[in-house]
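Narrative of activities, Objective 1.

The group set out to show that a structural description can be obtained from nothing but a protein's sequence at a throughput compatible with the screening campaign. Below is one input-output pair from the validation batch, recorded exactly as produced.
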Amino acid sequence: MPSQPCVELEAVTRLYRLGEETVYALSELDLRIDRGEHVAIMGPSGSGKSTLLQILGCIDSPTSGTYRLDGEDVSRIGESARAEVRNRKIGFVFQQFHLLPRATARKNVELPLVYAGVPAKERKERAMAALGEVGLGAQTDRRPDQLSGGQRQRVAIARALVTDPALLLADEPTGNLDSRTGAEILDLFDALRGPERTLVLVTHDPNLASRARRLVALRDGRLQYDGPPSQFAPEPALA
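Output recorded for this entry:
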């Protein structure tokens, strides 16, 4: 019997009404991502990848269709329920880091656990373990302004991992880093792979996408390609 996927979208459509015009950001999209997969999502501006990221992250809901996350149907739940799912099952890594400037690395990593009501002693232990996993065990008491860009992104990754989420979403995670530091962050993502750790990375960079084991390319809200990155021939707009 096949295992339950981490992500399952069935005929997902997301439309927006702009005056009298209807814009389809996503149209009848089917997508399955199994546990432990490392998937890159690409597409030109307006392809629907940002909308897909918002739906996968339970920031937005589909207009129609079904989205199951870790076996739970989250298609029609309200905002407060989506927020609870985000904190419990999803870890986010953003291009801009989004760290609290006056908080230490450890306190930044603890933040999702505060929202989850985890006791202080356990919060500290889990945050220290997560920072150790990303190679920052010696920088736990430093504030973001005392860290390099690569170290700040490692803090953001530790914060995303500290709740042991079913799904880790990364949105252009190397966009604010130089090429050497960006490569180090990608090496870290490779090292963090595991049978229960599912990573979906949204990017416009083919070199970054080539590090994934699977590439999903969108165009005009529809699936254009789904397969190995090495076999994808991008159109000029995707290059």
